[in-house]
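User: Please run a holo structure prediction.
Assistant: Happy to. Please share the sequence and the ligand.
User: Here you go; the ligand is iron/sulfur cluster.
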Amino acid sequence: MRRRSGAQNGYFRNTSRLAGSDFCRERPLRSRIPGGDVLWGRRMRKTGQRKAERLVEEVEKLLSGRDFVGFLKTRVNGPLKIHHEFRFSVSDCPNACSRPQIVDIGIIGARRPAISGVPCTGCGACVAVCREEAIGLGGEGDAPEIDMDKCVQCGKCIDSCPSGALEQGSHGWRVLVGGKLGRHPQLGAELEGIYSGEEVLAKVGRCVDLYFEYSEGGERFGAMLNRIAALRYRRKGTNTESSS
Ligand code: SF4
Ligand code: SF4
C-alpha cells in the first residue's frame, strides 16, 4: 500500500506508455525532493521510455531547487496540509493513467499523425486502430483524413500504417495547468501546442515562478490562475467603462 507522509509533500507521478508499445509493465517507484515526497508509477516500453524518464529526472531536478515547504510556511496561516502540495504529473500517453488533468501542472506525451504524400493502399488499418474515430479514408487522392478535433495524438495510426502514408508529425508533450480536485474541482487548461522537453522545463519553471510570486494563503495553482484572470477581467471592464 502506498503511504504518503502528509502536508510537506510535493507530489509527482509519471506513467510511461506511448502508443505502439508492445512491452508495457508497471514499476512503481518512490523518490524524494527536499520538502517533498516524489511518487510515480512508471510504465516501461522498448522505445520512448527513455525520453519520459529523462523528462521526469529533469523536472525532479528543477523542483529540487525550489523550497515549496518554506514558501508555503510563509503563506499558510496554520499547519500545512496535504491539499497545500504543489502537484505535478507526467503521463507518456493520452490514456493519462497518472491523472495529469487534475494536478497543478500535467504533462502528456503526444504524437500527432501527418499525411506523408506516400500513396495510401486503403487497407483501413489506421481506421481500425483509432479508438476516437478520428481518421477516415477518401480524402484527396484517397488519402486518409484526420479530424484533429477528435484526435488525442496517441500515434497509434502512425504505427499501424504499413505503407508510410501516415507519418509522425509534431511530437513531444502537451502541457495542462491549473487542474485540481477539492471543493471546486477543475480540469487543467491545456496550453496550445506540443512542446519539446526543454520547452516543458521552461514552462514548469515559469509556472513555479508565478506560483511563488502570486499565490496567496496556500491556494492551489488553478485557484490562483482563476483569481488573476478574474482580476484582469474586472480591471479590463473597469477600464472600458471609464474610457466610454
Ligand atoms: S487519428 Fe489521432 S487518435 Fe486516432 S489513432 Fe491516430 S493519433 Fe490516435
Ligand atoms: S493504414 Fe496507411 S495505407 Fe492503410 S488505410 Fe490507413 S493511411 Fe492508408
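The longest strand covers residues 166-177.
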